[in-house]
Amino acid sequence: MENLMLNSSLPPIFAEEEVLKQRNNAGSGSNGSESNSQAPGHPEPMEENSQAPPQPTESSSGNTESKVQRNGEEQKPRRPSWPKGRKRKKPIKDSNAPKAPLTGYVRFMNERREQLRAEWPDAPFPEITRMLGNEWTKLPPEEKQHYLEDAERDKERYMRELQQYQKTEAYKHFNRKVQEKQKGKQHRPADVRQAASESLHEKDTEGKERSVFDIPIFTEEFLNHSKAREGELRQLRKTNMEFEERNAALQKHVESMRGAVERLEGDVMQERSRNTLLQQHLETLRQALTASFSNLPLPGSGETPTLDTIDSYMNKLHSIILANPQEHENLINTVRDVISRLER
């Protein structure tokens, strides 16, 4: 069989097929099949289809072309994309502009954040934010309305202040500054912009490579230091909350004291007005008594009253009448007549 392969003039592919066929004929002869009638060394001629070399089909050629095309596309240099970690430039901030209004949800978060931190000191910031969002979702509408009304009032305040601010010189100056910056960007040369973008792209690429390879190792000392700092921060937050509660209590006490002082000041003003009225009435009474008793001298001294001496005159007259009323009956009757005229 090996000699047949060596002496055959067929190509190597056909020679191998002929050897396989001779092996099959030999096996069938041992089993007593009809193929024993053929002599060895004269193999059957192979069919034309088996002798023809395989021809490439259209689908295989199409796949080959598509592979070549894809390889060609992969070999093309890709266009450099904008780095994902690139930060955009922040717009110019106007420091003189009025403070932007807060929404109702932000007001609720500012009010409840410190309380949740006190209740859950070990909870991270995202967890506290999630808890605040759940509370806001479950909050009754009547309680939400309080924050929404405050936000609406703050928005109205912002619109009023903004309208007033837009009439000032500071707003006009800021507007001119923004327009000048935009004009400068428009007139900037294209090659300068391209060079700047390429340099920024290189810096971002270097920063990314550094961030990938410069990974700090958290040692045990650093972790212990971080834990100690976290404990100090929790203690400081707790102390801060206690001081805030004390300040709130003191603020309420101060407000109550201010209310008491205001009430006392009102009482003092009322008493002063009453004293003024009584003083005026006393002056009027002194004038009336002086005019009525000007013709009635005191027994023994003959003293008559004036505006300056009316008080001592009345005290002496009263003492004389009480000392001996029977002797001064005429004086008593005269005093009664004068007093009756005053009452009229």
UniProtKB/TrEMBL annotation:
**Species name for this entry?**
Acipenser oxyrinchus oxyrinchus
- UniProt biased composition (Low complexity): 24-37
Provide the taxonomic classification. Answer: Eukaryota, Metazoa, Chordata, Craniata, Vertebrata
Q: Where is the composition biased (Basic and acidic residues)?
A: 67-77, 140-155, 178-191, 199-208
Coiled-coil positions are 233-267
Which one Pfam family would you cite for this protein?
HMG_box
Alphabetized, the UniProt keywords read: Coiled coil, DNA-binding, Nucleus, Transcription, Transcription regulation
Record-given protein name: High mobility group protein 20A
Location of the DNA-binding region in this protein: 98-166
Q: What does the record list as GO biological process?
A: regulation of gene expression
